[in-house]
Every structure is written in structure tokens, then in C-alpha cells.
Amino acid sequence: MTDVLQIEDLSAGYGPLGVLHGVNLTVRAGERIGIVGLNGHGKSTLLRAIAGLTGWQSGSIKLNGVEIGGTRTQGPGRYTHKIVRMGLALMPQGDALFHGLSVADHLDSGAYTKRAWRERKQRRERVLGIFLPLRKLLDQPVGKLSGGERRMVSLARGLMDDARLLLIDEPSLGLAPKISKGLVQALMQIDIKDGAMVIAEQNLSLLEGKVSRLIGLHAGKLKGGALASDLPVSGLIHHDRHLHPKH
After folding, report:
1. Residue 223: alpha-carbon gap to chain centroid
2. At what angle do helices 120-130 and 147-158 cross, to 10 degrees?
3. How does DSSP assign the chain, residue by residue?
4. pLDDT per residue as tens, the chain (247 positions)
5. Closest Cα partner for 155 from 171, 173, 179?
6. pTM as predicted
7. CA distances from residue 190 to 72, 114, 166, 205 in whole angstroms, order as listed
8. Can you state the angle between helices 147-158 and 177-188, rounded to 10 degrees?
9. 37 CA to centre of own chain
């Protein structure tokens, strides 16, 4: 198996605040990885650092063997467009949508590369096959959709490009348990081929038994051996009984 993502000694934060501290992680082709931890412990910052969106960072991040990390002290997002073209898609937590635009507009906006734009109609059909409820909502402004439907739009938009690495941040945030479960099931249906998927999630039970590995993130540090796929979940995640949000 080849490595889609290699992170070595990554530290990152915002202004004077350090959030991640010496993170090491390797994600191989074909893997779905769950990063699980309480809010405020660095899950979103980890995904944002990979995409070049933190205020500052140091350490190595390699995407498909190419360095995209290194030392950066300012300009969050300055090189993110280049990283996206190299095969990364970030689905941020929350909606991160333009409520006046239609579902179809949002899907098309995800076709970022020239090839994806030329093939946007075919790609739209593919993602609608994963998120079936969106097919009847293509002309609807996303501001009129339910929370679960908006989350589907955000996830579907991220699948419109040629990403080899999918970063998905808190897919269950603010949603009812039944809707959250359906979204995660849809994510498991995605054919990642020789790519990889990293899901940051607070709710352990949503990912348990569905992903290749579960890794705990606590106080900005990965817990339990990020490369030890044979470790039981209880050995990876601290205080796992407190990771389930109350609905």
C-alpha cells in the first residue's frame, strides 16, 4: 500500500495559541481513518493544517509523496488552492454554504479543476447517487433546506473534484442521531479506490466498526499509536465514554 498522507512532527496553531503538538500520522491508500476526540482538542485544526489553513505551523506534511507542509508563519489559505489541485478535498464542519445559491450551484462549485468542470454533469450524477435526497432539491436555495440536507450538500460538493484525500470534519455536528448515522453510512459507500478518507468526529459510536482505524486526539496530541491498526479502540481513545454528544 502506498502512503496518501504522511505527517511528521506537525505543530500548528493560531496567533500565540498552539493547538497541535508534534503530531505524526501516516494514512495509506484505501484507508478510512477516524480521528476522535472532544471539542477543542485539535481535530479541526489538524484537518485545517493539512489544507494550509492554520495561522502558523511547522513540521512535514506530504500529500501523495509531495511536501505541502513545512514552516509557515502567516498567510492562512495562501497555498490552499494549489494543495486542492494536488488532490485534496476538505469538507468543513457546519454548513459553510452560500444560502442564496442553489444545490446545483454548490455542487458545480466543487468541480474545481478543469477536468472536473468539463465533467461536472456526470460527476453530479455520481454524487446524487450517494446522497439521494438531493436529486429533488437541485433548484432549491440551500438556505431553505434542513440541517441534514445542507450537510449533504457540503459533503457532495467535496466529492465533485479529483481528490485522492478526503478530509471530513464533524459530519454529525448539530444533527439528530438518525440523520448522522445515515450520513456516515453514505460516506462509507464512497469508492475511494487508491485514495484515503480522514473523518474527524466527536461521536465514537458513529465510526466504530466502520473505519480502518480509530485514533484518539487529546490536547493536540494523537493517542495510542497512530500507526498501530491492531490496537483495540479502548487502547486508542481516552475517556471514550465521554465522547458521545448528548442530543
Report:
1. 19
2. 130
3. --EEEEEEEEEEEETTEEEEEEEEEEEETT-EEEEE--TTSSHHHHHHHHTT-SSEEEEEEEETTEE--S-B-S-TTTTHHHHHHTTEEEE-SS----TTSBHHHHHHHT--SHHHHHTHHHHHHHHHHHSGGGGGGTTSBGGGS-HHHHHHHHHHHHTSS--SEEEEE-TTTT--HHHHHHHHHHHHTS--TT-EEEEEES-HHHHTTTSSEEEEEETTEEES-TT-TTS-HHHH-TTGGG-SPP-
4. 689 999 999 999 998 999 999 999 999 999 999 999 988 899 999 999 999 999 999 999 999 999 999 898 878 888 899 999 999 999 998 778 999 999 999 999 999 888 999 999 999 999 999 999 999 999 999 999 999 999 999 999 999 988 999 999 999 988 899 999 999 999 998 999 899 999 999 999 999 999 999 999 999 999 864 433 443 433 343 333 333 333 3
5. 171
6. 0.87
7. 33, 22, 10, 20
8. 20
9. 14
For 229, the grid coordinates are: 491498526
Cell reading at 24: 505524526
Other residues' Cβ atoms within 10 Å of the Cβ of residue 26: 15
At which residue does the C-alpha cell 497555498 appear?
79
Cell matching residue 134: 438531493
Q: Which three cell numbers stand for residue 16?
A: 500565540
Strand 17-28 vs strand 32-36: parallel, antiparallel, or unpaired?
Answer: unpaired
